[in-house]
## 1
Amino acid sequence: MSNISIKRAYSTAAKTLRIGLIPGDGIGKEVIPAGRQILEALNPSHNLKFEFVDLKAGFQHFKETGTALPDETVEILKTQTDGALFGAVSSPTTKVEGYSSPIVALRKKLGLYANVRPVKAAASTDRTVDMVIVRENTEDLYVKEERIFTNADGTKTAEAIKRITETASTRIGKIAMEIALQRQAQRDLGAASLHKSPILTVTHKSNVLSLSDGLFRETIRNFYNTHPEYSSISLQEQIVDSMVYRMFREPEIFDVVVAPNLYGDILSDGAAALVGSLGVVPSANVGENYVIGEPCHGSAPDIEGKGIANPIATIRSTALLLEFLGYAKPAAEIYAAVDANLVEGVVKTPDLGGKSSTQEVVADIIRRL
């Protein structure tokens, strides 16, 4: 996807990577084992070995213990692992006293400021979708600073803080530009793509939120204007509502999209409809020193325990994890195996119109490896 790595560690010497596994809730417990199976099935020529650490987090863990994200989980991730896979979390739609999302907390505690979500059609003909959505991961409305109060007339008002900082906007803009350049480098080497040159689309709503979204927009533009190493990138903008419209009508025009937290969340989930299902869209939560692969789907309680959850988003997230750790070659093999499965279209889970089980899809992809 990007070849941007937090650890440029790839070599011919044998290497053991220690990977944290955090299934979380719902189908997370069914798809995270798929990521482990794929890593264990990699070609021995890569000289990669893996050790796995099973870790706890999630709403179910909160209901059992009163803690959604144990301190032990965070400490082990920081000190004993090279990276991690996170499955899914069940987030209640109404306030539950003492509970907050463990993946949001992990992003903050580990400094995972970027959520990188490639969205690409795998069909062998008429490829119309090939974009990466880069979502700022630490602020915006997700700072979760809310209050509710009663007005003089007895009615209630709720308020939420939307926080945008120059620091966070600069670093998300920079990594988005780096990804745009790396995608162009792959195209220069012959990688198939819809795009002939790098494009970065900054998404915002500064026509209404002139201070907060205005700061996001201007910070990225100023960084671009003062760093000539990114001058080959075409910097464009889209107001978020126009972005949604054009993404569905003309997805082929977008290359790399960068957005504040809320817009990036909505855009990346919506973009999954362009490629068939949330079950095939991966993501990576990326910081300066750590990365967590995370499928974009939720905990899917309606299919939990049925053995039909699509493992492809997790498998692609596993490849993203390897890529950001500096292991592009085995990651590319995983991508190719997944694409071959999708192009053939025989072994597929119900969300893609098939009748196969989770494990049957995993086995088919391993066979292609």
Note: The domain at 118-134+163-276 is CATH 3.40.718.10 (Isopropylmalate Dehydrogenase).
## 2
Amino acid sequence: MASAAASHEEGQQHPIKLYLLVWVLLFVLSAGSYMVDYVELQGLLRWSLIIIFMLLKAGLIVAVFMHMAWERLALAYAILLPPVAVLVFLAIMTAESDYTLISRLTFFGTP
């Protein structure tokens, strides 16, 4: 009984190299995020890069430190699909709001 528990506990360990690699990747992504401000990028490029760096860092943290990379696919879908659905809904509503603004300006004129 003790050997089964010890082998199960031993199987749960991940190599320290993986955590160090993720730490280095997070450091590089954070440096890239700070470089966006340092280079003083503006407009859509700035916000796109900031969001891309943010999503990459969040994905690394969820996959490795929250052990989502080793979970069953059904559990990963149960956790990850609702935020993806919210983002799709947000994109649809953004397009709808642009259409509403354009149609109001067309029919009612500029304020």
Note: The mean pLDDT is 85.
## 3
Amino acid sequence: MTLYARVSTDTSPEILYQLLTEQWKLSPPNLLISVTGGAKNFYLKARIKNMFHRGLIKVAQTTGAWIITGGTHAGVMKHVGQAVRDNALSSSIHGQIVAIGVATWGIIHNKDALSCPFYLSCCSF
């Protein structure tokens, strides 16, 4: 399931953490993995791509980490999303991978469908 929250720039981190752990029932992370990089698309050879996918998923699973990215389907963030998606499609045996994309409202495609009049909107789609 994909969840989202639209929050103000002055929303406190405590409120966001409460949303993630109490409302969405995510286990608190033992580690945060922040994957950052440009949004420019690039090609990865199959061997390197597979190593990146396997390594990222293994670290997230074995440590109980949350993976945090810029939340777009471009560049290195696209590769993270593909790794998480492929893992979810291939096996649910090893547990859930938590991936959180943090994107600015201005770059969200079809954002009108996500708009709510609330200060903190928590919706799923």
Note: The longest strand covers residues 65-69.
